[in-house]
């Protein structure tokens, strides 16, 4: 997070989408909420460090965009993540 914070500080016009993701366990409603809270937690970290909230968008994708489509413990762990996407 600190490396991303440095980029945001070094490039003040940069805007980010912060996307939260989950694995495929649990209900759709729970995963949507969990992924949104993950993204919001990262957004809060950045805003607490002085980044203007208008530069950040937090989106919870639940398990809609898996990195790995397997049902193993290791695959599920890879799907639980937060990613950044530059917004033009």
Explain what the structure shows:
The chain is α+β, with helices and mostly antiparallel strands. Helix content is 42%, strand content 22%. The chain contains three helices and three strands; from the N terminus they run αβαβαβ. It has helices spanning 2-10, 28-48, 73-79; strands spanning 15-21, 56-60, 81-87. It is elongated, with a radius of gyration of 14 Å. It starts with a helix and ends with a strand.
List the helices and strands and how they pair.
Elements: H1 2-10, E1 15-21, H2 28-48, E2 56-60, H3 73-79, E3 81-87
Parallel strand pairs: 1-2
Antiparallel strand pairs: 1-3
Assembly type of the shown chains?
single chain
The major pleated sheet works out as:
3 strands, mixed
Question: How many strand elements?
Answer: 3
Give the percentage of residues in beta strands: 15-25%
Question: Segments where pLDDT lies below 50 for 5+ residues?
Answer: none
Task: Give the H and E element order.
Answer: HEHEHE
Terminal CA distance reads 21 Å
Output the strand order for the largest sheet: 2-1-3
- Overall structural class, as computed from helix and strand content, comes to alpha+beta
Tally of DSSP helical segments: 3
Residue share in helix: 40-55%
Mean pLDDT: 97
Q: What Rg, in angstroms, do the CA atoms define?
A: 14 Å
Global shape: elongated
């Amino acid at each position: 997070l600190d490396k991303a914070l440095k980029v945001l500080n070094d490039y003040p016009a940069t805007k980010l989408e912060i996307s939260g993701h989950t694995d495929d366990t649990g209900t759709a409603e729970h995963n949507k909420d969990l992924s949104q809270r993950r993204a919001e937690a990262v957004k809060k970290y950045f805003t607490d460090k002085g980044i203007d909230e208008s530069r950040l968008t937090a989106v919870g994708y639940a398990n809609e965009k898996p990195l790995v489509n397997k049902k193993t413990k290791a695959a599920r762990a890879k799907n639980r993540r937060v990613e950044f996407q530059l917004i033009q």
